[in-house]
Design a protein that fits this description.
Keywords: Flavoprotein, FMN. The chain is α/β, with parallel strands linked by helices. The chain is 41% helix and 14% strand. Strands 1, 2, 3, 4, 5, 6 and 7 form a seven-stranded mixed beta sheet that branches.
Length: 244
Amino acid sequence: MNKDLLLQKILNIKETELAALTGKELRLPELHEKPKILLLYGSLREGSYSRKVIEEAELLLREMGAETFIFHPEGLPLHSTTEGAQHPKVQELRERVTWSDGMVWCSPEIHGSMSSVMKTQIDWIPLSINAIRPTQGKTLAIMQVSGGSQSFNALNQLRVLGRWMRMFTIPNQSSVAKVYQEFDEQGRMRESSYYERIVDVMEELMKFTLLTRDNKQYLTDRYSERVQKSNKLAEVLKNENISE
């Protein structure tokens, strides 16, 4: 079986229509390191559809040239519990956030909102770790799944959180309605407009990651933070002069 037919069978994509994301079209320097993408899903349920969608997204990202990691939230404590940041699952999550160049979040919609499992993972990601902002300037793709008709409530909330965490949340997004109808007996997603949208979203995530990854320090450099650093330095120098 030739590669095009094999890819179509495994990923439901046509290789001839999948753009090679090398950065050349963006006039970027040659890639020496694959974009690193962290994927989060929002359900602990056996047979979770948000996890299945994330697994489909991971396959696509790998085919597009990314290095990927899916974080499994089983065992992650509620935010602000006794063990806190020392819990092994919290440390694993934070290490992977720091490792990543971009992220994919996929949540089921429950009572018109993202799931508590999804929110708990995001709550454990701090805005700052030892003066380093682990999410600032990184890319983010958002998706949601629904058991009923198509909705965008969870997506809207995820987009707000991405902005709050100073991430570049890409314009495209995916909402899969009646998600239980979109997977076959082997647990793979069927070819459909929903699947094609997920391909679109992952492709766009890769493009934005390639565009911004090596320039995030410049893109997120802020006047207010430069002033704050300058004032702190001036205070240190002032105290040193007084002590002399």
